[in-house]
Amino acid sequence: MSRKSSSKISRRHFVEGTGAGLVAAATVAPLKGQAPGADVKNRTQGAPSSPPRTKIKFTINGAERGMEVEDHWTLVELLRDHLGLTGSKIGCDRGECGACTVLLDGKSVYSCSQLGVWIDGKSIITIEGLAKNGRLDPLQQAFIDHDGPQCGFCTSGQLMSAKALLMHNPHPSAEEVRAGMTGNICRCSNYNHYVEAVLAASAAGPSTGSGGNAA
Ligand code: FES
Ligand code: FES
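The joint structure predicted for all components is written out below.
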């Protein structure tokens, strides 16, 4: 037998053998007392029909709120998609850019890196909570006066980090401002203007330091 014909037989036998195996697998008898397909049904019966949810209570921009959240929602998802607070932006969605920064019990955090369910019993301030009675927070006004926002995508995060900084250090040096906002990336590279704005707001008075504007 030539090498060629041997190879052909070999392939045919392989295909025949594999086909027989597939047929056997498809027609395998159900377990004793079990209807065909019942094992598949049993395996899927235990699967949850929807993600786990948890009831939480929290304060958002001074207002108390209660709601049921899916346990896998991030805080920024909760804010943007379920509370309509779209001022917090999603840049990287993995804790690198700072566009999603909010205040959690007075501390700046990346809301993309927190679960929504974790804010149970806590207080959140977002960019929407800075202005009061239609008046901008002095920090916001300083950002405008010093041409902070260029494309503006990073601005709400920059503001929230600046807010947290002034709440804890009302009169920072330029170096302290840079250090305090180091976790906020500006793709327009307008860092110097942001620093000038924070220093100007700091010099203007203590109103930016209370955090009470959010109420
Ligand atoms: S979107 Fe949260 S840190 Fe970039
Ligand atoms: S102003 Fe454009 S990213 Fe900062």
